[in-house]
Amino acid sequence: MPELIVNNLLRRIGRTLLTALGVGLGVATIVALLSVSAGLTQTAAGFIHLGDSDLGVFQSGVSDPTVSVLQTTLVARLQRNPDVAKATPLVLIVGKVPASPSAFVFGAEVHGFFVQRLVFAAGGQPSAGAIAVGDGLAASLHLTPGAKLMVDHHRFTVSGVYHSGVPYEDEGAVLPLAAAQAISGLQGEATTIPVELAPGASTAAATRSIQHEFQGTQVIADPGEAARAGANGALIHSATLVIIIIALILGAISVTNTMAMSVLERQGELALLSTVGWSAPRVAALVIGEGIGVSLLGAAIGLVFGVLGSLALIKLLGAGAYVSPQITAWGLGRGLLVGVSIGVLGGLYPAWRVTRMAPLRGLSRAA
Questions:
Q1: pLDDT score at 40
Q2: At a CB cut-off of 8 Å and minimum separation 6, what does 339 contact?
Q3: What's the burial of 212, exposed, middle or buried (CB within 10 Å: 0-12/13-18/19+)?
Q4: pLDDT tier at 342 (50, 70, 90 boundaries)?
Q5: Would you give the end-to-end CA distance of the chain in angstroms?
Q6: Long-range contact pairs involving 257-260 (C-beta distance under 8 Å, separation at least 24)
Q7: CB distance 91 to 152 below 8 Å
Q8: Quick check: 9 and 321 in contact, CB under 8 A?
């Protein structure tokens, strides 16, 4: 039967390819969104462990953790918590580097553990009027110590080039906390407060005690929590679900239409199969098999374009500095599963019509 299915699809190659392309478009969209969503989750993992911290403290109830606002006076109070060893405030500045709009700029206390853990390949730490840049940003903009970098209409001298091992930190820059607060208008405030736990402290216990002591804060220690807390991540997850449903419906309609037309055109052939001993379920399985074959071809096309599309989407959005599409076996598998499901759903009605068709009547129509 597989050989017969392939031959039947090749006989109407134009129709087969057009149907497969329709299925592939839906699968490609699903794969691209799943890849970007996985990339956001990985980015969230880095964001809550800035400076190799154990957890991050954010303002609760905000649409996205990156727009959180906290008073820096919380730092001293946090450090008095028995579960906390160190805490340091950070200000996050996004989209303010004209030469690299996707670069993050971190405002940090020079003596805090975030800056102290940066490894400098050239130059040294940021200071008043000076900015340290990651080696990724330095390479892309050809920056060395002594060069100039604009941040929101403020010109800073590059004090040094560092490496942290976190992609979007290395594609960004670090300013002294006061300079970042002045640029962002957050005097006396921070975006987040990374926390390093005391030896032996439980993450779960520390999370509960911090949130209980500091009302209005949200403690994030798990990448999944960060992705769920962000409006962008939630939007992508919701959009993916909607697109999967739409792809199933539209793809199934497309395959149903193609297979129904094929059944009508091949009534004589299908009736002949019945007269030579093929059972109705076997003939129906042939029709469903052809529908799955078209959808598998579409899924293969969709997987390729989905991978390429995810890379193009990140580039189009200018988010390559902090989000990299994560192509996972599970993401590709879900795209393939949708493709197979489209084939099954699309073949059900034509297959049912075949089982209702009388062999002799089909032969007479073909004649």
A1: 65
A2: 23, 27, 251, 295, 296, 298, 299, 302
A3: exposed
A4: confident
A5: 25
A6: 258/15, 258/16, 258/19, 258/291, 258/294, 258/346, 259/287, 259/290, 259/291, 259/294, 259/346, 259/347, 259/349, 259/350, 259/351, 260/349, 260/350, 260/353
A7: no
A8: no
For residue 252, the SS3 value is helix
Nearest to 106 by CA among 154, 66, 71: 66
Q: Residue 123 belongs to what H/E stretch?
A: strand 119-123
Helix, strand, coil distribution of the chain in percent, nearest 5: 60, 15, 25
Tokens of 302: 């969709």
Q: What is the DSSP string of 185-213?
A: T-TTEESBEEEEEPTT--HHHHHHHHHHH
Torsions phi, psi of 318, nearest 5?
Answer: 65, 30
- The pairing of strands 130-134 and 154-163 is parallel
How far apart are alpha carbons 15 and 256 in whole angstroms?
A: 13
CB contact at 8 A, 70 and 192: yes
Both tokens assigned to 51: 């400076």
The span from the CA of 332 to the CA of 329, in Å, is 5
pTM, two decimals, is 0.63
| pLDDT tens digits along 100-157 | 887 889 999 999 999 999 999 999 999 989 999 999 999 999 999 999 999 998 999 9
What is the DSSP track for 21-76? Answer: HHHHHHHHHHHHHHHHHHHHHHHHHHHTTGGG-SEEEEETT-SSGGG--EETTHHH
Q: Give me 81's structure tokens.
A: 């918590």
Say if residues 118 and 110 touch (Cβ distance below 8 Å). no
- Token pair recorded at residue 41: 């989750």
Place of tokens 């009736």: 271
